[in-house]
Amino acid sequence: MLTLDMATMEFYVFELPPYLKGQQDCFFAVGETKDGEPCFVYCIGFSIGVLKDRVGDDGVKRWILVGMVNYEAESANGNRLQVVTVEGGFAYLITTEMVLSLCIETMELEKLFPRTFYALHFHPYIMAWPSSLVGNYRHFAIIQDGVGNE
What we know:
This protein has 150 residues and is an all-beta fold.
C-alpha cells in the first residue's frame, strides 16, 4: 500500500504483514481511526485483528498488532466473518447472519442488526446526525425562551 505522509510530504510503502500472506479466507480493509491514523483490520475465521502504523524498534514503519477480538457466531453452518470497511474509528463486518461494528479504540465488538439481505456487495452508509437532533435528548427543538410545550 502506498501512502503519503501529509506532514512530511513523503511516500511510504506498506506491505501486507508476513503472517497474513497466503492465509486462506483472510478478509481485510484499510482505513483510519477517529484521529485520522491509518489502521488495518483483518479477520481470519472468527478472529479479528487490528494493526496500526507504527515505527518498530529498528526505526522502520510497519503494521503492528494492537488488538485482537473473537466473534462468537450463533451458528457455524456456512457462516464466515468478513471486514467490509473501516471508517471513522469503526470497522464494519458482516456474517451471513449479522452486521457488526468494532470500535478500534476500545476493541468492543457490537451486533448492529440481523442481516436479512444477501447482496454481493455491502457498503454501510455513514452520515452525521442533523444538528437539530444532536444534544436535544428526545426534544425536537431547543427551547430558548424557557417556555415550551411538552
